[in-house]
Amino acid sequence: MNPFTMESPTEAPEEYGTGTALACAILGLSFLIGVPGNLFVIWTILRSMKKRSHTVMLILHLAVADTVVLITVPLWIYSMAHTWEFGEGTCKALVYFISTCMYSSIFFITLMSVERFVAISHPFVMLRWGSKGSMNTFLLFLWLLAFSLGTPAILTQTLNEAGGVTQCFSREFSTDTQAIIIVCLETLAGFVLPLIILSICSCHVSMKIKKLSFNSKPKSVVLIHAVLIAFILCWLPHHIINIITVISLVMSDTEQEYIPEYLVFSSGALVFISSSVNPMLYAFFAKNFRGSLEGSRLVRLFQEMTVYTNKLRELAVQQQSGQGPSTQEVLISDSTC
């Protein structure tokens, strides 16, 4: 899932320059904000949160995946400004790891919503399977799935050369059918299916909360919705280009019109913003919490996310047990990892 991949020839030099300049600016901003932000999130969780809820564990793995993606940014900026000097093997390996981490980031965001859905809709299932071992199994499965889905990058990624400049931006497919299958798989697994799951879970949880008469809406809930909106905004342009690519391949009886290169570069750089935006959201929603250090505010925010999920689960348990959803009788039991 190389965000900068093109199936078209390089275009006019002036257009290439425009796309390169815009992409480098976006990438540079993502790197400067995202790497320190994600490292701070990782440091805060590992240092200050010995008992980690499932949600906090997902945030930790999400920050790790995003950091791995962002530390490759200097290589991309150098490549765009000059040429790719690191060989085809490095090109394939780099794109493979980026694809894997981008898939895993999307999966972790999705699992956050799924966990809230299960906690409020099937609380007894959550109590039975919400253990440390179960969460570790889910995390391992998602990482393995992401590594599997990133495999096409090794098979198809190649170097392209134009005007004496070598770049790591092209994929080489043996047939149009192979290209259609891989691009469709990328769009379905990396965007469409997660978006459907996220939407269903969010809508169902919202309706369930109304039935439980639980009117409190802490910052952590708005934060989860903000992460979802950021995911959609950052990834939608990239996958729209993917869909256009598939349509152009299917309509092979007509003259194929390629997407302007500057749009490919800009949408690809926008994808990297998705790996840097979450720490900014955490900081924004944590700013009103009391604490002398920014780290302590983040800890309070993450703790609120855990407490809120547990409250919803306890209310759902009481309702299904026929006890009534009395908020005064809610027992907050930490599900820790």
Can you put this structure into words, describing what you see?
With 337 residues, the chain is mainly α. The protein has a single domain, classed as Rhodopsin 7-helix transmembrane proteins (Rhopdopsin 7-helix transmembrane proteins, Up-down Bundle). Helix content is 73%, strand content 4%. It has 12 helices and 2 strands, in the order H-H-H-H-H-H-H-E-E-H-H-H-H-H. It has helices spanning 13-48, 54-70, 73-81, 87-121, 123-129, 132-149, 151-156, 176-211, 219-250, 261-273, 277-286, 294-320; strands at 157-162, 165-171. Strands 1-2 form a two-stranded antiparallel sheet. Strand 1 and strand 2 form a beta hairpin. Helix 1 runs parallel beside helix 10. It is globular, with a radius of gyration of 22 Å. The model is unreliable at 8-15 and 324-337 (pLDDT under 50).
